[in-house]
């Protein structure tokens, strides 16, 4: 990933705000959303937004006009319109980002100027944080346009974790540092936790846990970046400077309210990702599969710049999963052998535990083999002439696509996001000696699959915030590998029940190297 990933500029956030000043067409029908702001991300959402906007402009003109009555201040007018827009879209299944809401409010404010003689170069809405670009002259007979509107009127909600001011958190962090000898980032986590707990001893119990997470994020994590990363709707974070953080949601880049205290704070957090002086551009990766780049001077003369994009499950590879500590090399080799030997493999774990990423990694590892994927999502959509992607929907169930996928005679049939209603169909295929099936689902969804029909059961879970393979079992229920909290991944037996099948498939020597 680079700072120009997907054609986006790191400074798109301010540019997007400046574009609010563009004068819309006040005459004639309302402009389409594509003319107001670019529609990116999910096509279904874009279509629903278009329909909702058309309905809004047809039926809500009176509500918008009412927002200007009653002697409201400019900020109150903008807020009232924003509330009308937000509630209208939300009740129709669309939650607008703060960027989208600002643009639509600006559009409605601008349309209020219909028929007014506004200088061609003058702005329709002037934000308090931006310099004025011109002054309008009025005849006195015309109604005046809305006065300047402060950007705070469109401010998004505060961070869900921040309940203290940056200064108060800085004081807590300073007290912890004073009691520690050395850099807390390089110390055992338990040592830091104990010291933070002692500093927060006089804090009320109901607020202590939240302050503990904040303090640990500052001392041992990524500070403001970590707080943003806790929001799963955020797909990317861009840091232009200590007071300029942007996030990407649903394909739209917008400003964040999170801030670094100062340049020293930013430099400290960045140093935990990449060391300055090694290279002016350093590629980085996090344990959750996220990747990005840090730019240092002289490439970024004003100071460090960061672009971090959340790892997508479909982009996972076995090499990345091993490097991230989600499983070890022997376990990855066993999975590769199992897939090539056309064993039946079942991956079980809770939501967000890494099941899709593991399936994607195994699918990619098969290279040009004939693969059929069946899932209710598009995470397996990479281009491959030998791969067939089938997507379940309300019109065609995943259970129906299972049998269809097998008729395509794949070397590997990959099935993701099994539901309880699909278990019987999968169990029927496995009991019928169907080979080369790798399926994944949560425990309730796979409970109906006959255990003896599964050659290799792979359990995944989340430990300390990291998705890992917690155990691997053969058809008899014997553990082949298990994750030990203090000892990492441990091999438990020397010979799995499927050893003969693997030997007959020609991978016996490779299997022996895994278990000896």
What does this structure look like?
The chain has 516 residues and is α/β, with parallel strands linked by helices. The chain folds into 3 domains: 150 residues, no CATH class; 144 residues, 2-Layer Sandwich (Beta-Lactamase); 201 residues, Rossmann fold (3-Layer(aba) Sandwich), CATH 3.40.50. It contains 19 helices and 15 strands. A 9-stranded mixed sheet has the order 9-8-10-11-7-12-13-14-15, with helices on both faces. It has a 6-stranded antiparallel sheet with strand order 3-2-1-6-5-4, with helices on both faces. Helix 8 packs across helix 9, helix 13 packs antiparallel against helix 19 and helix 15 packs parallel to helix 16. The two termini are 39 Å apart. The N terminus is likely disordered.
Low-confidence stretches: 1-28, 114-158
How many DSSP helices?
19
General shape: globular
Instruction: Give the C-level CATH assignment of the largest domain.
Output: Alpha Beta
Quickly give the CATH architecture of the largest domain: 3-Layer(aba) Sandwich
According to DSSP, the number of beta strands is 15
Mean pLDDT across residues: 81
Strand-helix topology:
Layout: H1 12-18, H2 33-36, H3 43-59, H4 61-66, H5 74-90, H6 98-111, H7 166-179, H8 189-199, H9 205-220, H10 224-229, E1 236-241, E2 244-249, E3 252-255, H11 263-271, E4 281-285, E5 291-295, E6 305-309, H12 318-323, H13 329-340, E7 345-348, H14 355-365, E8 371-375, E9 387-391, H15 398-407, E10 412-418, H16 423-431, E11 437-441, H17 443-446, E12 456-463, E13 466-474, E14 479-484, E15 488-491, H18 499-504, H19 508-515
Parallel strand pairs: 7-11, 7-12, 8-9, 8-10, 10-11
Antiparallel strand pairs: 1-2, 1-6, 2-3, 4-5, 5-6, 12-13, 13-14, 14-15
Helix pairs in contact: 5-6, 7-8, 7-9, 8-9, 13-19, 15-16
């Amino acid at each position: 990933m680079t700072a120009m990933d997907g054609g986006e500029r790191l400074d798109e956030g301010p540019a997007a705000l400046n574009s609010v000043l563009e004068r819309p067409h006040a005459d004639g029908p309302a402009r389409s959303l594509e003319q107001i702001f670019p529609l990116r991300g999910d096509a279904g959402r874009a279509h629903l937004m278009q329909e909702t906007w058309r309905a809004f402009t047809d039926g809500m003109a009176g509500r918008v006009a009412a927002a200007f009555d009653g002697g409201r201040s400019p900020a109150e007018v903008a807020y009232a319109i924003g509330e009308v827009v937000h509630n209208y879209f939300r009740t129709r299944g669309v939650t607008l980002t703060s960027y989208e809401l600002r643009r639509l409010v600006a559009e409605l404010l601008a349309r209020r100027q219909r028929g007014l003689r506004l200088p061609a170069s003058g702005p329709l809405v002037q934000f308090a944080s931006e310099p004025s670009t011109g002054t309008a002259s009025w005849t006195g007979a015309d109604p005046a346009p809305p006065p300047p509107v402060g950007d705070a009127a469109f401010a998004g909600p505060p961070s869900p974790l921040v309940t203290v001011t940056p200064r108060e958190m800085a004081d807590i962090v300073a007290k912890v540092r004073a009691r520690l000898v050395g850099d807390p980032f390089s110390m055992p986590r338990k040592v830091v936790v104990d010291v933070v707990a002692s500093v927060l001893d006089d804090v009320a119990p109901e607020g202590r846990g939240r302050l503990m997470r904040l303090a640990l994020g500052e001392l041992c994590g990524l500070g403001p970046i970590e707080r943003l990363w806790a929001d799963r709707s955020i797909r990317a974070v861009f840091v232009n400077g200590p007071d300029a953080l942007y996030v990407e949601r649903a394909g739209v880049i917008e400003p964040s309210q999170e801030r670094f205290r100062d340049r020293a704070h930013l430099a400290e957090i960045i140093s935990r990702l990449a060391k300055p002086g090694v290279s002016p551009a350093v590629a980085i990766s996090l344990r959750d599969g996220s990747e990005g780049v840090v730019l240092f001077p002289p490439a970024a003369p004003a100071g460090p710049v960061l672009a971090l994009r959340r790892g997508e499950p479909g982009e996972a590879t076995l090499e990345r999963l091993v490097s991230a500590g989600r499983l070890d090399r022997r376990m990855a080799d066993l999975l590769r052998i199992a897939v090539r030997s056309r064993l039946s493999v079942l991956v079980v774990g809770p939501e967000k535990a890494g099941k899709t990423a593991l399936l994607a990694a195994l699918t990619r590892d098969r290279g040009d083999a004939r693969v059929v994927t069946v899932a209710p999502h598009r995470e397996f959509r990479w281009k491959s002439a030998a791969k067939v992607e089938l997507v379940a929907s309300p019109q065609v169930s995943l259970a129906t696509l299972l049998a269809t996928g097998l008729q395509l005679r794949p070397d590997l049939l990959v099935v993701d996001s099994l539901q309880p209603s699909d278990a019987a169909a999968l169990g029927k295929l496995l009991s019928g000696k169907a080979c080369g099936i790798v399926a994944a689902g949560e425990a309730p969804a796979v409970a109906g699959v006959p255990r003896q029909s599964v050659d290799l059961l792979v359990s995944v879970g989340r430990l300390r915030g990291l998705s890992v393979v917690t155990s691997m079992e053969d058809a008899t229920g014997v553990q082949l590998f298990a994750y030990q909290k203090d000892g990492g991944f441990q091999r438990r037996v020397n010979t799995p029940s499927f050893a003969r099948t693997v030997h007959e498939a020609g991978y016996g020597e490779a299997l022996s190297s895994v278990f000896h």
